[in-house]
C-alpha cells in the first residue's frame, strides 16, 4: 500500500456537532488577548488565557461532542483526548484551554483548542481536482497525494498536518484515526483521502 493511502481528511460531522465562534454579547470582553482574533494557520500562536467561545449553530438536540469547531478550521476537543495526543508529542501542535457557553449560557470548561500549524506539501495537483489562485494556493475539490513527497518526510512529522497550498485541509495518519476510533469520538468525520470530495456530508 502506498503511503498516500494511509491518510484521512478530518472534517466536522456537521449533522452531529455544534459550531463555535467569538461572541462579545455573551462573553463581554471575553477575549482580550488579540492573538485569538489573529490566528494564522501556519505558525505558532501565543495565547495566555482561556479562549472563550459560544455555540453559534446547534442541532435540535444539541450535545457537547468530543470534537467541535471554531471557524471550521480549528478543532476544539474534549480534554479526555489529551491522553491520546500528549504522548505522541505531535509536531507543531499546541493545546489551549477553552471555555464554551451553550445557548442556555451553561459554561463548559473541559475543552481545548487543538492548534495545528504543521504544514506538509504533498498534494499531487496533476491528479487532484483543484483550482489554483494567482497567489499559488489551491481550492481543492478532489484530493490525491504525492507519494514521493510524503516519503521525504519522516512519519513522526506527518501524523497530523495541514496540506501545503490548501492549509484549511487537515490530514491525519491512519494510526491516529484508529486511536480516535477506539475512543468512539463524536463530532468528527474521517474520510479516506482517495474518496474524499469537497462537501462530503455522509
Automatic annotation (TrEMBL):
Matching InterPro entries: Imm11 (IPR012433)
Annotated protein name in UniProt: Immunity MXAN-0049 protein domain-containing protein
Species the sequence originates in: hydrothermal vent metagenome
A Pfam family it matches: Imm11
Domain Immunity MXAN-0049 protein intervals: 49-194
